[in-house]
């Protein structure tokens, strides 16, 4: 083998697996520019978990450390295979529980011991939106720690208990088909200390 051939072989083998740093991301093209210790390669795609009928998208971010696999050692044809934690961006968790931390502080975590799923968007002051034609929450107990607003109708099949003041604005209040709101009337009313009869 000539010196040139040996050098070329070393280059090919050395480029098969390379570690680099994300310089920039083109979200529209779905590609990223990677810095390999001063060697800048543009237009590299990144691997995704699904890319068929079901698709997934989670782009790498600037300064993320990545591993690139290059067919025949050609970096221009490389694919960003996966990311590697580093001092600036350490592992999201330190136990067996799956956890995702987003840049704005939002956390999604599943605790295998307590069998609980946490979605915490409090640090980002964000909100969670669920859109569907219908939804069922099947659990024996639900707790809401803040205010609750219902824009549509409310149907309650079980018993209800309330503490604190209750205020009704507009509409009517009925019990057993009879009006018991501000406009209701009683029969059998007379001056004195006796009780009125039932609601009219």
Description:
It comes from Acinetobacter ursingii. Residues 175-200 are annotated as: Disordered. Residues 20-82 form the Gp5/Type VI secretion system Vgr protein OB-fold domain. This is Phage baseplate assembly protein V. Residues 136-175 form the Phage spike trimer domain. The protein has 200 residues and is mostly beta strands. Among the domains are: 3-83, OB fold (Dihydrolipoamide Acetyltransferase, E2P) (Beta Barrel), CATH 2.40.50; 91-132, no CATH class. Helices cover 7% and strands 26% of the residues. The chain contains 1 helix and 10 strands. It has a 5-stranded mixed β-barrel. A 3-stranded antiparallel sheet has the order 6-7-8, with no helix packed on it. A hairpin with a 4-residue loop joins β7 (107-111) and β8. The radius of gyration is 32 Å and the shape is rod-shaped. The mean pLDDT is 89.
List the helices and strands and how they pair.
Blueprint: H1 3-16, E1 17-26, E2 31-36, E3 39-46, E4 65-69, E5 79-83, E6 99-101, E7 107-111, E8 116-120, E9 174-175, E10 178-179
Parallel strand pairs: 3-5
Antiparallel strand pairs: 1-2, 1-4, 2-3, 4-5, 6-7, 7-8, 9-10
InterPro entries: Gp5/Vgr_OB (IPR006531), GpV/Gp45 (IPR013046), Phage_spike (IPR040629), Vgr_OB-fold_dom_sf (IPR037026)
Pfam family, one: Phage_spike
Organism: Acinetobacter ursingii
